[in-house]
Amino acid sequence: MASSLLESLLSKCTALSHLNQIQSLLIATGQFKFLNICPPRSKLLELYSLTFNHLNFAIHTFSQIPNPSTNDWNAILRGLIIGPSPSDAFLWYRSMLRGSYRIDALTCSFVLKACARVLALSDSLQLHSHIVRKGFSADALLGTTLLDLYAKAGDIGSAQKVFDEMAKRDIASWNALISGLAQGEKPDEALGLFKRIEIDGFKPNEITVLGGLSACSQLGAFKEGDKIYDYIRSERLDGNVQVCNAVIDMYAKCGFVDKAYSVFQTMSCDKSLVTWNTMIMAFAMHGDGDKALELFHQMGPSVRMEPDEVSYLAAICACNHAGLVDEGYKLFTSMQSLGLTPNVKHYGSVVDLLGRAGRLQQAYYVIDSMPMLPDMVLWQTLLGACKTYKNVDMAEMVTRKLVEMGSTSDGNFVLLSNIYAAHERWADVGRIRDVMKNKDVRKTPGFSYIEEKGVIHKFYNADKAHKHCKQIYGKLEEIRFKMKEFGYAAETSFVLHDIGDEEKENALYQHSEKLAVAFGLICAEDEARPIQVIKNLRICGDCHVVIKLISKMYNREIIVRDRVRFHRFKDGTCSCRDYW
Question: What is the model's pTM?
Fold first, then answer.
C-alpha cells in the first residue's frame, strides 16, 4: 500500500472501526511492518490516542515499532496529556532520554502541558533545565507553555522570570502571565501588566480581558473595570459568554450590582448556566435576597435553563445574607427530592444560615448528621456563630473538634479568645494567647484598601506609613468631633483586650477601614461616585456604626466589601439592614 494511499485513507477515518479495518488489512497482507518506515504511522498513533481516545491501543501499536521517530513519541505524549494519567508523560520522556531518542521543542511542550495538569513543579524544573541545555529557550511556544505551567503551579516568580527572558513574546505569553498573576494573589501586578500590553504593541483578546477583569474583581478596581468593559464592547468581544460572565462578576465584586444586572439583561449572546448562577450569587453577596430568589425561580423550562447544585448554593447564600432562614432551609431540604445532592458547601451555607440566626443547636445537628465528614470550615463557621451569640460551652467544644482535626488556623484561637474576652475571662484569654505563642500561630493582620486614580492604597490598623498620614488622621478627628453631635459613643465592647476605655476608643478609631474611608473623603473629586473600600476580614461592629454615620454626615455613598459580603452605606443606613 503506497504511503500516499494510506495517508488518504487515514484522513477519511471518521470512526474507530474504520481505523481498525485499516490496521487489520495491513496486518493481514503483511504490510504492517511497512509502518516502520512510513510517515503515516504517526498519524495512525494520533488517531488512536487523540481522535478516538484509545490510548492503550496507540501504545500497543507503538510497541511494535522497532525504531520510533520523534513524531511517534510525540503522538503518544499528546494522548497522555488528555488521558487520566498525564504524569505518565514524564516517565515516557525519561524513556526517550535513556534511549537517546531525538527530543524536539514539541516534545518538551507536550511534557510541560502534562506537568501543568498535575502541577508537577519539581518535574517542570528538571524539564526547564533540559530546555535550556538543548537550546530551545528561544522557542516562543515553548516559553509560553513553560510560563503558563509556572503560573498555574503558583510559582509566579519563575513565571515572571521566563516572561522577562523571552526574546520574542506573543499574545499567549502575555495572557499566561496576566492570568497567573491574577490567580496568584497578585491582582495589582496583573492589572499593571494588562495596562502595558497595548503599549507593547499587542491587542488584548478574550483571554486577556478575562485576566484583566479577574484582577479588577479582586481589587474592586471598578474604574479600570469600566475601561476594560468599554474596550470589550468596542472590539465586539461581548459576543463571548465567558467574557460577559466575567464582566457581571467584576461589577458585582466591585459593588455595582445594578450594572452587573444591566449586563445580564442586555447580553447579545445566549446566557449559560454560569451566567444565571453568577447573577444570583451577585445579588446574594449584596444582601438582596428577594431579587436573588426571584431570578432563581425564573429558571426552568421557560428560559431553557434548569438550576443545578451551584444555583441552589447561590440561592441559599442569598437567604443567608438576607436573614431568610426558613426559606433557605427549605431550599436545602428540597434538593434531594429534585435529584440534586448537597455537597459540603451547601451544608456550610446552611450552618452559617442557622448560626447567624442564633439557632446554634440546629446548626450543630446539621453538621452531626452530614453523610460525609465535615471539614474544618464547617466547624469554624459554627465557632463564628458562637462568638456572635457568646456561647462559651459550644465554642470550647467546637475548638476541641478543630484541634483534633489538626487545625492551626489563627482564626479558631482568635474567635475563642474573643468569646472569653466578651465575658471578661481574661485569664482564659491569656491562656489562649500562650497556646498560640507555643504553636507559633500568628493572628492575620486586618487591612483595607481603596483605589484612587488607578492606584491601590493599602492601610493596616493604626497605619502611619501613608504619605498623606497627617491629613487622614486630621479627617478622622473631624469625623470623631462631628459624630458626637449625632450622639455617637464608641462601641468599646468590640475591643477585646484588658485595657481602659480610652485606650479601647483609640484602638477602634485607628481601624484600617476607617483610615481608608477618611482617605476616600479627602481624595474623592466626584461626590456622586461611591467611596469603595475592600477589607480582608469582616468589618467590625463599631466601624459599621461609624461608616453609617459618615454616609449621613457627609452625604456620601460608601461601599465596603469585607470577607463575607458587601455593605452599601447610604443616608445613615446599610444594605445589610444590620444583619451580618
Answer: 0.80
